């Protein structure tokens, strides 16, 4: 995700390329099967694909684990959302990450920004409840409680599960993180915490932006004293991208509670995972000037 998917999508968007979801799937599969770098500790023969990578955009989203991508072109204009999910196996054991798997927010509107911050808080509260003192149902209820308190109007859009146990089997059905599972969390269990908001309706006048969903997924290992989260960054600064730099001063920030503190959402310039700022609008303007000079 960090070494291939994120840089790939940033390059596609930056250079305004037309790329089909299917092409991104094929390239991502190759990246999974060929671990990166000479210093990488993984050997190719120990790595496999857990499920076909998922790329969704253009208003058609399916947050189910069995979801598949369509063959449409990646859609990334203003106020659009891109969801990515990547699953891999190491020595037959599964891993899964989604959003960023990730969820990319392109010039996010107020609803998208607020919903993402609420989802991020709910996701972290769910992870926090996965310890040996709690029932599995308490983890999902933690997510519900966050949404009920901070944005009750979004509760109907919350997924009915917060993920499942994972291991040699990608989905351990007996360890489903839902409201009815009374089993106790035990040390050594591994969960894929996958939580989302689905089927939001925005007021965009663009058909492909009127429907959107959000998804966050990370693998969590239950230890005796501390829960270990295998993740890449899901900070707002790493998932929100802006094409419209000039609008930064005009747009009010969105303010909601996150992690017990006030979090502020700003329009941002294009960012990579190492936080290097890419001046996307300047590049576009420069290309437009060169094209005009050629004419």
From TrEMBL:
It comes from the Eukaryota. The keyword Transcription applies. The keyword NAD does not apply. GO terms for cellular component: FACT complex. GO terms for molecular function: nucleosome binding. It is found in: Nucleus; Chromosome. Pfam families: Peptidase_M24 (PF00557). Keywords: Chromosome, DNA damage, DNA repair, DNA replication, Nucleus, Transcription, Transcription regulation. One of its GO terms (biological process) is DNA repair. Residues 43-223 form the Peptidase M24 domain. Component of the FACT complex, a general chromatin factor that acts to reorganize nucleosomes. The FACT complex is involved in multiple processes that require DNA as a template such as mRNA elongation, DNA replication and DNA repair. During transcription elongation the FACT complex acts as a histone chaperone that both destabilizes and restores nucleosomal structure. Component of the FACT complex. Belongs to the peptidase M24 family. SPT16 subfamily. This is FACT complex subunit. It comes from Quillaja saponaria (Soap bark tree).
């Amino acid at each position: 995700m960090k070494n291939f998917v994120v840089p790939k999508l940033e390059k596609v968007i930056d250079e305004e390329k037309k790329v089909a979801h299917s092409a991104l799937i094929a390239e991502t599969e190759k990246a999974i099967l060929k671990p990166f770098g000479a210093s990488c500790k993984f050997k190719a023969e120990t790595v496999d694909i857990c499920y076909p990578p998922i790329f969704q955009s253009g208003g058609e989203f399916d947050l189910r684990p069995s979801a598949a991508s369509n063959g449409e072109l990646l859609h990334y204009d203003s106020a659009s959302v891109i969801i990515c999910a990547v699953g891999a196996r190491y020595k037959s054991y599964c891993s899964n990450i989604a959003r960023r798997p990730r969820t990319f927010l392109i010039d996010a509107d107020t609803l998208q920004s607020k919903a993402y911050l609420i989802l991020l808080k709910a996701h972290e509260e769910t992870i926090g409840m996965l310890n040996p003192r709690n029932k599995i149902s308490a983890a999902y209820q933690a997510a519900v409680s966050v949404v009920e308190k901070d944005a009750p109007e979004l509760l109907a859009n919350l997924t009915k599960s917060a993920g499942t146990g994972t291991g040699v089997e990608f989905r351990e059905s007996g360890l489903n993180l839902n409201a009815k599972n009374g089993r106790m969390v035990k040390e050594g269990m591994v969960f894929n915490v996958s939580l989302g908001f689905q089927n939001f309706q925005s007021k965009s006048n663009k058909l492909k932006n009127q429907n959107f969903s959000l998804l966050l997924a990370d693998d969590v290992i239950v230890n005796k004293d501390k829960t270990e989260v295998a993740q890449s960054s899901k900070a707002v600064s790493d998932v929100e991208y802006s094409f419209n730099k000039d609008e930064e001063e005009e747009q009010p920030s969105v303010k909601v509670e996150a992690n017990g503190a006030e979090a502020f959402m700003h329009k941002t310039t294009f960012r990579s995972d190492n936080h290097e700022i890419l001046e996307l609008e300047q590049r576009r303007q420069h290309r437009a000037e060169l094209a005009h000079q050629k004419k």
